[in-house]
Hints:
Elements: H1 3-17, H2 22-34, H3 36-59, H4 62-70, H5 72-92, H6 98-101, H7 107-119, H8 123-135, H9 144-172, H10 178-205
Helix pairs in contact: 1-9, 2-3, 2-9, 2-10, 3-7, 3-8, 3-9, 5-10
Amino acid sequence: MDYGLFIQGIIVGLTLAVPVGPISLVCIHRTVAGGRLHGIISGLGVATADSFYAAVAFLGLTAVSGLIIGHQSLFRLLAGIALILVGIQVFRSVPATVSDGDGQEPYLQDYLSLLAIAAANPLTLIFFITILPGFGVVAQGTTVIAAVPFVAGIFLGSSLWWIILCGSLGSVRSRLDTCRLRWINRVSGILIASFGAGMLLLLYTAPDLFR
């Protein structure tokens, strides 16, 4: 294994996961509402999508990347609508007590829903296409074997962040009463839906950015 690529992958994975955005807010909400495991598994769905885009960029799969970037308006439209719907659901959700919060949604649903939303954001692919040359990893080979340590590092780095974030939030979950949970749901729902609305607004006001 090329440990240099593996470490670089961990760094890039953390760099991609740490900034707070709508997906982070969804994971935070699920952690607070259902427990740390719901948030962590949701984060693993995001890490899987990040790893897929990393593999596409690293291997130089021009057909796949061209298809995704060429239809990024559609992908961003779907992602924007999904975020608005999720935001509305979060805003309207009724806070459960800590004892009742576990198991609110199947873990598979947590994973697949965040995987779909993250995969619908072509900016992740653009991020990798832009940043990989700076790390000097593309020139080292385009074989599947060469990609494995880097993509594994991406998945590990992203997953570590979600484990740290959701694990930390899960430890303070028991201190939140119903009133605070209600306000967290409302604020999170508004912010998530606002991100989605912002994506749709950009598609309307600046369509040239996505061609």
